[in-house]
Amino acid sequence: MSKVLYISSEAFPLIKTGGLADVAGSLPVALLKESQDVRLLLPAYSQVLDKISSSKLVAEYTYYNLPVQILETKLPGSNVIVWLVDCPVLFNRPGGPYADSNGQAWPDNALRFAVFCHAAVDISLNKLGLNWQPDVSHCNDWQTGLVPALLSLQPERPVTIFTIHNLAYQGVFDRQTFNDLHLPVELWHMHGVEFYDYFSFIKGGLAYADKITTVSPSYAREILQPEFGYGLDGLLQNRVHHLSGILNGIDEKHWNPGTDIHLAQKYNRRSLSKKPLNKIALQKQLSLPVDANIPMIGMISRLVQQKGLDIILPSLPSLLTMPVQLVILGTGEAHYEQQLIEWANRHTERFKVIIGYDETLSHMIEAASDIYLMPSTFEPCGLNQMYSLRYGTLPIATNVGGLADTVVNASKENIEDGTANGFILKNQTAPALLAAVQHALSLYQQPQLWRQLQTNAMSEDFSWVSSADHYISLYQQALADR
Ligand code: ADP
Ligand code: GLC
């Protein structure tokens, strides 16, 4: 049994902008089930404080002259203890965890997450009077990058794990910010947090953590190449013996079509004939023509370049002449939102775009759709293709990262050997996407075959059990290496 401090800037259901929240809201629960003593550390954003029913004050401290309190609560629906870093000046404001409601990054993000990291470091060293010292401090993404860096300077410290959920977001600030935060000068060099004269939070994790993981085996290989490495491939190559990929699991409590409270009709592998009732319900709700036989293509996504919008938009003129209904739920960059809305306004019978963040609708779309669109340019893991597989909604995906590790193309061979569960694009272009859609539609016309592909998809095991075991082995290895 290890004591694990799991440090994350978001966790479902308390606060979520993307897949990191899903992971931080479910991996600690899985670790606890495997008898690990886990505590989850999160910033006390106003949204988080609104969601919890009660909390107690367990520690107080001051960073940069700002009073900080540590509040203890539980992750809703679980027994995982959550410690919240409460510093109202930094975290209690309207808007998102990283940006205001217009999508502008908070100007004091470096300070916000430096305070969060200092609190994580002091808890890791049992300095805040919590009477608990972790064996492992498990950090996630740039917001936690200073933790391995600062802990590396301490003799009596836990081992550090740094998980990369997305290398494209690095937390880069100017040199002055580093000075203003009074961080130890020993960290400022090219093998430390300095990045071409700038100050990089993520390098603190990549350079100093005892072990680095990322969220799929394929992405762990891809980030060693310049194309996916965003300038950090050299550093990662140097640390390749400490780098591994562990595929995310999915939270079966929330993502199971047999028990999903958001669905008009629950179903499972053996009652797949009930799935189309979800399509009819969504068609009615979105004022689309009601027809259970028309193939529905769904997508739920941050609307950013990563998610393949530059492939999808040029496909729309052809895609919207096909006999399909397309439903996209998302928020993101304004120019993508606008272009999608314009297309939807011109094709109201075929295409619905819902701009916004809507948990219930996201479940309804997964259940209603026949096909899921995920032509990402890169994808560290990707959860939506796994949710889709679980819901018998066959993904159309690019051959990258976690998509490559979970989606098996419906080629003749893979169909014959019973492994096919979706469609892989030949390359990252609009014609390749259209070809994959055509292929999917032709198989959709063969109900028996389609049913077989759905059954293959729904039979995959994406539960957290095996991934949690991989993390536990890694913790043990890191502790043994010390
Ligand atoms: P990423 O973390 O890169 O955004 P993932 O596929 O790992 O991609 O996870 C995205 C998560 O966020 C999924 O749970 C997905 O359903 C959810 N999500 C994304 N956009 C929305 C939205 N507009 N409304 C509801 N849920 C969303
Ligand atoms: C990131 C990645 C996504 C991954 C998620 C959770 O947001 O973009 O691919 O699934 O983190 O690990």
Give a quick rundown of the structure.
The chain has 482 residues and is α/β, with parallel strands linked by helices.
Strand order of the largest sheet: 3-4-5-2-1-6-7-11-12
Q: State mean pLDDT (0 to 100 scale).
A: 97
CATH architecture of the largest domain: 3-Layer(aba) Sandwich
Number of strands: 18
Shape: globular
Do you know the CATH topology of the largest domain? Answer: Rossmann fold
Structural domain count: 2
CATH superfamily of the largest domain: Glycogen Phosphorylase B
Unreliable segments of 5+ consecutive residues:
none
- Radius of gyration (CA) equals 23 Å
Helix content: 25-40%
Hetero compounds = adenosine-5'-diphosphate, alpha-D-glucopyranose
Structural class: alpha/beta
Number of helices: 21
Sheet-strand content, in percent, reads: 15-25%
The major sheet is characterized as: 9 strands, mixed
The first-to-last residue Cα distance is 17 Å
The CATH class of the largest domain: Alpha Beta
Can you walk me through this structure?
Helix content is 38%, strand content 19%. The protein contains 21 helices and 18 strands. A nine-stranded mixed beta sheet has the order 3-4-5-2-1-6-7-11-12, with helices on both faces. Strands 15-14-13-16-17-18 form a six-stranded parallel beta sheet, sandwiched between helices. Strands 8-10-9 form a three-stranded antiparallel beta sheet. Strand 16 (371-374), helix 16 and strand 17 (394-397) form a beta-alpha-beta unit. It is globular and about 65 Å long. Alpha-D-glucopyranose (GLC) is lined by residues 18-20, 23, 165-166, 215, 248, 379-383, 402.
